[in-house]
Design brief:
single chain, 306 residues, mainly beta, 9-stranded antiparallel sheet, 5-stranded antiparallel sheet, elongated
Length: 306
């Protein structure tokens, strides 16, 4: 798979390094050499007919620009530096970001792409064509085909997801916005079946949304025709916003947790857990609806605001 180096005009130093690295015919020749093979500095010098000292300087500039990578390996006389390509393309965005306009990038996570869970009957999963496995069997939540699930339900417990940072951004966001469609989980359905759903990010409890009920009195707008009447049909759209000041759920103050409290790291994933706390007042389970089910044609979405 091709690797792309993204260079933004706002990162002026990186743009300068890349521009300088590409301003030399010898350095361009080195990049062409390394596209198909790896060489040490001495071999590079011989292949493009320059002194080894000059080749070493060119390699250093290409490495600083993130265009190649090097590795020290033992040689006949000490160690030698092996050079190889790191990126296939350079994508330069010359327009900077306006300081008064927020930029938003959204990652959409399928309902079935959870990395951990704890569920209890009544529970199950379904894709657009059928129930996955069998209902009320918690171990079915680890069937390989679970990744295709568009809806899942459990009478208690949690599901956890891992989100990546958007690759085009190299800075931490100033706000996270999470949206998902959910309702409670009662046997069949019960419109006044309350459930306290708590949201954790990176292990930090951010807030709790109380689902008013398990909705089934009408069909979900997107449900496939095979989905039975008389069971959970749709949910409410829940929006969790975590800024530098506080956390809001559906525009209401949920906690004093700020984005700094989440200890985000662009080189790590973001964990999201949705579920009932064991000590919650209303442990009414939950249904999570993805695209093709419920009322909202979306999966679990995490938006990054810069």
């Amino acid at each position: 798979m091709s690797k792309v180096l993204m260079v933004m005009a706002d990162d002026e130093e990186q743009l300068r390094r890349v521009g300088y690295a590409l301003s030399s015919i010898q350095r361009i020749q080195i990049l062409k050499l390394l596209y198909y093979n790896s060489y040490n500095v001495k071999e590079i010098a011989e292949l493009i007919n320059i002194p080894a000292s000059s080749a070493a300087l060119h390699v250093r500039e290409l490495e600083k620009a993130d265009l190649i990578q090097t590795k020290q390996l033992p040689g006949k006389r000490g160690s030698m530096k092996i050079c190889s390509r790191k990126n296939d393309y350079v994508n330069i965005k010359l327009s900077g970001q306006a300081s008064n306009i927020n930029q938003v990038t959204t990652v959409s996570m399928p309902i079935g792409a959870y990395t951990d869970c704890r569920v209890t009957p009544t529970c199950g999963l379904a894709d657009e064509q059928r129930i996955i496995g069998y209902e009320d069997r918690p171990n079915n939540f680890y069937l390989p085909e679970r990744v295709n699930a568009k809806v899942l339900w459990t009478s208690s417990g949690y599901v956890e997801y891992k989100f990546p940072f958007p690759v085009e951004h190299q800075t931490l966001p100033k706000e996270l916005i999470l949206t998902f469609e959910a309702c409670s989980e009662a046997p069949n359905f019960k419109e006044d079946w309350k459930s306290d759903l708590t949201i954790w990010i990176n292990g930090i409890e951010c807030g709790t949304w109380q689902s008013p009920g398990d909705y089934g009195a009408r069909r979900g707008k997107l449900n496939p025709v095979w989905w039975d009447d008389g069971v959970s049909q749709y949910g409410k759209l829940v929006t969790v916003s975590i800024s530098g000041e506080l956390t809001r759920i559906n525009a209401k103050h949920a906690s004093d947790i700020t984005i700094d409290d989440l200890h985000l790291d662009i080189n790590d994933t973001i964990s999201l857990r949705i579920g009932n706390k064991e000590e919650a007042k209303y442990i009414g389970g939950f249904n999570l609806f993805g695209c093709s089910f419920g009322d909202y044609n979306q999966d679990i979405e995490l938006s990054f605001v810069y």
